[in-house]
Amino acid sequence: MSPKDESLFDAPPMGEQERMVEAILFASAEPMTVRALEDRMPHGCDAAEALAHVRKRYEGRGVGVIKVGDGWVFRTAPDLGFLMQREKVETRKLSRAAIETLAIIAYHQPATRAEIEEIRGVSVSRGTVDQLLEMEWIRFGRRRMTPGRPVTFVVTQTFLDHFGLEGVRDLPGLKELRSAGLLESRPPPGGIDGLMGQNDDDDDHDVVDDEDQTDMFED
Questions:
Q1: How far lies 112's CA from each of 68, 109, 143, 217, 219, in Å?
Q2: Residue of 109, 107, 180, 188 whose CA lies nearest to 151
Q3: Residue 53 falls within a domain, yes or no?
Q4: Residues 4-16 pLDDT 10s
Q5: 178 and 107 in one domain?
Q6: Based on the domain organization, do 101 and 195 belong to the same domain?
């Protein structure tokens, strides 16, 4: 005789067993195997049959019972997955190197990699530039008509839009950046004045536009 036949108690009606399976699956954070379901249910229950009834009852509903590995779990209907998507602005923290590189490009554009490295006093990694390019905060400018024809970098409209600027001439000066807590008291290797291309007493700096250097660049 099977354990079910040897049970001293009658199994609950199948409708009640369905409710049990439904409750267990709903409350479980992990997929449940048939064996695990049966271990939680009273003696004599047929978890496999009860599970089959629950699955059928949820066919075509907003959620269904699906198999994950050896277990079963409630999941949103695949065709309704788009309702679970949520638009969210991803906040990405920039490294100190990326912030300094971005600042140099913004205040000295168009700037070559060599010029950025000269101001920072250290080399600029490819990853730092790639991150700023991926964020679309900088873009490639025109090549400079100097030996090697180095490429230049300039800030983008996306950068201006993000910070609410009409143009690069609206970039804040050192006093505004420090009062806003956006600059640390410890200067970068090249000196903070070199980084921003200005002194504390010279916040009204001039930003050179591309058209002012047409003799130095080619299209």
A1: 53, 8, 9, 12, 16
A2: 109
A3: yes
A4: 445 556 889 999 9
A5: yes
A6: yes
